[in-house]
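Q: I have 151 residues here and want to know how they pack in 3D. Can you give me a structure?
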Amino acid sequence: MKVGDICARNVVSVREFDELTAAARVMRERHVGYLVVVVPTVSESALKPVGVLTDRDIVVGVIARETDPRSLRVGDLMTRQPVMVDEDQPIGAALREMRRIGVRRIPVVDHSGCLVGVLSLDEIVGALSEELTDVAGSIRSEVRIEKALRP
């Protein structure tokens, strides 16, 4: 299975020069803790990721330092040049990359580097649980068929 098969395609994004408080409001309104910071491509029909901003970035970078959030822009706190995975990569390769850099979410891009989604551990666990359900079903079927053939 490939990353593009399971990643979330409804990505919530912001721009680098957006006010940090506006980004925090977007997180609250959309019930997310992870925003992809994007710039439009030349054709403006697609977006390229240039960073990510998490709710933890805001807590650690603003609240813990007692900084006035109204004085900051997304670009002041975002992680620049985030590691990304290609939508055609196998899930295992993406998971190894996520483990290597210590993240729970990672932007997914197409062959031209344009944003197509976000892969989270939630999607990976969901996909694996479906596969394990199929494995368990196969085992149950095998036992049932064996009993029917050899009473």
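Q: Anything worth noting?
A: The mean pLDDT is 92. The longest strand covers residues 47-54.
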